[in-house]
Write a structure and sequence with these properties.
This protein is of the alpha/beta class and about 425 residues long. The chain is built from 19 helices and 13 strands. It folds into 3 domains: about 220 residues, Rossmann fold (3-Layer(aba) Sandwich); about 80 residues, Orthogonal Bundle (Tyrosyl-Transfer RNA Synthetase), CATH 1.10.240.10; about 80 residues, RNA-binding S4 domain (Structural Genomics Hypothetical 15.5 Kd Protein In mrcA-pckA Intergenic Region, Chain A, Roll). The strands form 3 sheets. It has a 6-stranded mixed sheet with strand order 1-6-5-2-3-4, sandwiched between helices. A 5-stranded mixed sheet has the order 7-13-12-9-10, sandwiched between helices. Strands 8-11 form a two-stranded antiparallel ribbon.
Length: about 425
Amino acid sequence: MNLRQEREQRGIVNQFSNEKVFDLLGKWGQKFYIWFDPSADSLQIGNMFSVMAAIHLMKYGNKCYFLVGGATGMIGDPSLKNAERSFLSEQQLRHNEQAIYNQLKTFLENVKKNYDIDFEYEMVDNYDFYKDMNYLKFLREVGKYMTVNTMMAKESVKKRIEDPEKSITYAEFSYMLIQWYDFLHLFENHGVNIQLWWSDQRGNVTTGMEIIRKKLDKEVFCLTIPLVTDASWAKYGKSEGNAVRVDKKKNSPYFVYQFFMNVEDVLVEKLLKVFSLKSLEQIDTIVKKHMEKPELRYGQKELASRVVEVLFGKEAVQQAEKISKILFGGADIMETITWFATGDLDALAEETWSISMAATEEKVVDIFTQSGLTSSNGDAKKMMQSGSLFINEVKVEDPQMMITKDMGVNGVILLRKGKKQYKIVRVVGA
């Protein structure tokens, strides 16, 4: 299977400027770039589609330039926006850029390590392209080669101008010129001749190609990838209520793991092809096994594991699986806790919003109320009468019972309400 066939079967080809782009990429040694917006200090799951699409090109011996828009971020992309974005401070932008650089490097190095794939990449910031360029030089370098007619025809501009209650600032209008110059600069200074980008940005991509043709009389290429959507066609990783940040401090590895554990069966094959480096034959095998007993969620487990592995590493996968065994059963819970490492216990405590127990002993009703599993001591007593409260998986029936430190297993006491609501008590000084 050649490069084009693989990309098409994985669903990561939308449009391309010329058939020649696949021949070039398939022969190795090409340079391409993909762009990231530093409007936040973390990438989202949707962004990972473009990273994986780039990796699938790099594994054929091509080099990717991961461009973070430090300059374009100072203005804000007007595409599909009804009003001007709020400007971020330079300090915030620099912080966001560094955070995204660090995330990208972590993901890429995880892939190299876990899949034994070697590839070349480079991080660039388009702020460096413009910081020493004066305005007159920019007009001569870029403005001369693009007409206002072309810029006015862009959908992002037309919608804002045609609506009498909206408008577009000159800064936003100029955004596209900066975006187009990126390609020209990378071509002239690094030999980058291919741009990989989202399908909804194709117009900007092709215009960047046009500037290179007009100014340098050289041919360059573009390749777009489709937007990743869920079963309701909403974008993954965007603002439709399903945004998942790929930063441990914002969304833990366990949270990301459970996000993919809960995808619909119909999406398992599609997302495995996008978010994993499993071969198409391996994915076919996974899907067939999954469809034999969908209720076991075998496909989701494979998907969740592969995504977390790329984002956070193999250890994070193991930790997410351990926490899942506690919170969703399927194992001897107390035995599982006995072989939890300190880091695993910390992660479990964070996921369950744990409390600490410093005293030698505490009343059982107080402990459940402090944990938030019951709203009051009276509520705790009612729950006990209905047989709904458990400590270390043993039903609690006596409201006068005292909880002591020596009940801790590996330094924790496990509380449960009903079948699925868990909290842990960290035994301080145990």
